Amino acid sequence: MEDFLPPENVRDLRALDEAAFKKTVAVKGLIVPKRRCQEIVKALRKVNQSLRITGVAPVRDIPEDKNSMLVLMAPHIDEETLPKIVTELLADGTLTRSSLSIDLTFANYTAAQVLSRVLPDDVPPISSFATIGHIAHLNLKREHEPFRTIIGEVILAKNPIIRTVVNKTHSIDNTFRTFSMEVLAGEPDTNVKHSENGCIFKFDFAKVFWNSRLCGEHQRVVDMLTRKDVVCDVFAGVGPFVVPAAKRGCRVYANDLNSSSTDSLSENCKLNRVSPSVTVFNLDGRDFLREIASKVTGQSTSTTNGVASAKYPMFNHVVMNLPAIAIDFLDVFRGLFAGHSDIAMPTIHCYCFSSAEDPKQDVICRVKKVLQIADLGSEVNVHEVRSIAISAQQYCISFRLPTDVAYATAATEAEEPAAKRACLGT
After folding, report:
1. Sign (positive/negative) of CA torsion 281, 198, 229, 310?
2. Which of 109, 315, 389, 399 would staple 230 via disulfide (CB 3.0–4.6 Å)?
């Protein structure tokens, strides 16, 4: 198998030189009568013993023998595991062994094969990258730094839909969830058009937050919703929850502090023809929830985007996808509906990270501490979203807002210490 990998001389290459990948290899094969060719190829493929190299045809004509074909075999061929039909036809002379010299070039190797040969053994392999529209997004490690140019060039060359390769150079900012990036290869264009869950999104990837790995999570939450639901998205970004929820028939109040995000969100609502169902806000998360609460309870006389407060139905779902600090924002719900007694409590979907030994209990405990309550009730679910590091995962806790929290008044604030102590381990 080693013979079919890129040549050893490309090791430590710092810039892409496709000519350096040329190599000639000898491939084993079988001369097969045309009438038996399909049968033999099918048998070899079934046991993974047919040649599979990008750009190399595994079955070829034989110019000097019009009645036969040359079937090329995999380099790891194991004589003991050859299909029974092959061994029988070799034994009776129907098939004969052969070989062929093939010239391999850069085009015949996958990106993984190229990079595994280029990078030194002590440098971690490039396992994956995220695709956002025409952009390939990498999170390179410090060890990759000397090779970042060729890494970008290889990914660009091997992925036809990619026009730009970028690398995150700093951690995500907790305020706008954006990060600094460098263009490794291709066009310096970060304005993308991206499809997800049947919706189209346009945005400048350098100015807003987007994570394609959350596609399944976006759909999971949207699948919980019905046409009658009213949703608050506190940290809406460019609309990965908002747009599909609105397409499902929901009324949505969408907010983000980043004006670049809300500009793109408004455009995406128009692009997906859901603007009448979505009201966009550009506020701090706490201010947004206080504003919406005042509107749905009829206490606000203001208008937003030309929509009067009387047109704001009560929300029954709240999405809070800012995992680094979203739990901290739960304090706004304490007393949010003070002075009322007939509010149907919404379900809150709050995202967070945890590296605790018992992460689900850790998440519940932190939520109770911020809400200053000893019990979240029976409608609590902690869902593992994804792993973000060896010892840390992202979670979504969903729970019904307790009435004791929503209706809390200044008189109940004296209970705060006892409520905090109710969380074990604090």
Report:
1. positive
2. 315
Q: List Cα–Cα distances, 202 to 153, 260, 275, 277, 305, in angstroms.
A: 25, 11, 15, 19, 21
* CA–CA gap between residue 10 and residue 18 (Å, rounded): 10
Residue 217: predicted pLDDT: 96
CA atoms within 13 A on the CB side of 248: 22
pLDDT in tens, 256-270: 999 999 999 999 999
Q: What pLDDT was estimated at residue 415?
A: 45
Rounded to whole angstroms, what are the CA distances from 326 to 10, 51, 172, 332, 352? 47, 52, 15, 11, 7
Whether the CB-CB separation of 236 and 261 falls below 8 Å is answered with yes
CA angle 240, 273, 241 (to 5 degrees): 15
Residue 165 host element (H or E): strand 164-168
In angstroms, the CA 375 to CA 365 distance is 9
Beta strand 164-168 with 135-138: parallel, antiparallel or unpaired? parallel
Q: What is the pLDDT of residues 16-62, one digit of tens each?
A: 999 999 999 999 999 999 999 999 999 999 999 999 999 999 999 99
Any residues with CB less than 8 A from the CB of 343 and at least 6 apart, and which? 297, 314, 337, 406
The answer, yes or no, to whether residue 221 has pLDDT greater than 80, is yes
pLDDT tens-digit series, residues 362-415: 999 999 999 999 999 888 999 999 988 777 899 999 999 999 999 998 544 444
Quick one: DSSP state of residue 182? E
Residue type, 386: R
**Which among 163, 211, 205 has a CA at the least distance from the CA of 187?**
163
Q: What is the pTM of this model?
A: 0.82
- CB-based contact 7:20 (threshold 8 Å): yes
